[in-house]
């Protein structure tokens, strides 16, 4: 399910992240981002496979990015790797611009732009 999670270029990114899981909301801080997902910390762990709704802003942008995702991994420092499963085309373009990457044609089986 997550075998292709490392196909995208990652760049460091420290920004506030709001993570909604079912009826709970948590605040965290990102470590890095790619067009396929984001890595962040929030002082607690989530189970791999959990469905989440994320909200964050990119540096120098007023637009808030909202994305659905699934927890792909949690490391021993409780950093949570989320693979985007649904994100708007405009938001994805902003992430691509931040990364400065043209790996847009890399396949990602569970990615669904809106």
Write the layout of secondary structure elements.
Elements: E1 11-12, E2 16-21, E3 24-34, E4 37-41, E5 51-57, E6 64-74, E7 79-87, H1 89-99, E8 112-113
Parallel strand pairs: 7-8
Antiparallel strand pairs: 1-3, 2-3, 2-5, 3-4, 4-7, 5-6, 6-7
User: What is the string of SSEs from the N terminus onward?
Assistant: EEEEEEEHE
Extract low-pLDDT stretches: 1-5, 102-114
How is the CATH topology named?
A: Thrombin, subunit H
- Name of the level-1 CATH class: Mainly Beta
The profile of the biggest β sheet is: 6 strands, antiparallel, barrel
Strand arrangement in the largest pleated sheet: 2-3-4-7-6-5
Q: Can you give keywords for this protein?
A:
114 residues, 1 helix, disordered C terminus
Verbal overview:
This protein has a single domain (11-103), classed as Thrombin, subunit H. By secondary structure, it is mainly beta. β2 (16-21) and β3 form a beta hairpin. It has a six-stranded antiparallel barrel with strand order 2-3-4-7-6-5. The protein has one helix and eight strands.
Q: How would you sum up this structure in a few lines?
A:
The chain has 114 residues and is mostly beta strands. The chain has one helix at residues 89-99; strands at 11-12, 16-21, 24-34, 37-41, 51-57, 64-74, 79-87, 112-113.
